[in-house]
Specification:
0% strand; 344 residues; mainly alpha
Length: 344
Amino acid sequence: MLRRFIQRFLNKNIFLLPSFVLLLLFILGVSIGSTSIPFYSIIKSFSDAFFKTNFVPDDIQTIVMNIRVPRVLLAGLVGACLSLAGVAFQGILKNPLADPFTLGVSSGASVGAVFVLYFQISLPIVTYFTLPVVSILFGFFTLLLLIVFVRKLDRSLNVETLILGGIIISSFCSALLSLFITFSDNELRSVIGWLMGNIGGRGIQYSITLLPFLILSFLILFSQNRQLDAMTFGSTNAIHLGINVTKVTYLILFTGSILSGAAVAVSGTIGFVGLVVPHYTRAIVGSLHRKLLPLSMINGAIFLIGSDIISRVILAPRELPIGVITSLIGAPIFAIILLQLKKK
């Protein structure tokens, strides 16, 4: 009886438990590090920041508000972006293995970011947002190139063909990145660490840069949740329901590229988040995008904040790039999903 009640309660309040876990991990992420900070000091630091009190020493206040909070916040936002991008790509391509990393979109966006850094480009209208905008455009054109190439080989966008095309695109982008870094000075060579996926040492301005792209993309995807549901069952069924398949396809692909490019611009290449999180979220709530989109966003934030905590403690006081942790978790899951698809 109690078990049935708990199950019903969780079904009706599906966002309650993930939101609680997210809050818990946020506090844990701020607390854990080379200097361990107790919970009450974190609360007092927020009080000092917002109400101009003076409860904690300045050094603790600096660590919490200038180092830990921006880092954990950025991890959550990047995780949310990559997870939403994974849901978008998987829904529109009807492929459970589609995500920004496996499709090569992240690699293309990385080329765009390094291109801006190498040539010190500043676009006249977007100025401050030049880096994410160029990353988004490079990621989108990379995705279009992949789809055109794969359709030449297999019009059904077969799983194996799509993955093979993604590997080819990623390899080419990696070669371009190596070329940029080889001809650059020492300053750009430090980008190598960033390309492995790194959110350490980022100020709050990185989160402020990323947030508008996340909000805009979520609103677009959520407004298209019925179209995504319909297209899960095939383009023909969607056309019969009166959906402009071509328009919706390009809108969803571009929105996924916005999320991927913006995330790459602030954190480098972080793999498998967009594959792992939508996969287990879909197993919990099913394929209706009205629930899948917001829950994937929360779970993506949980996954990346948790990965960041692991990257900080596993070899403390040294830190591993967060992209290494997500790849160590995601690659085996990727293999398991591929084996399951082959059996089916």
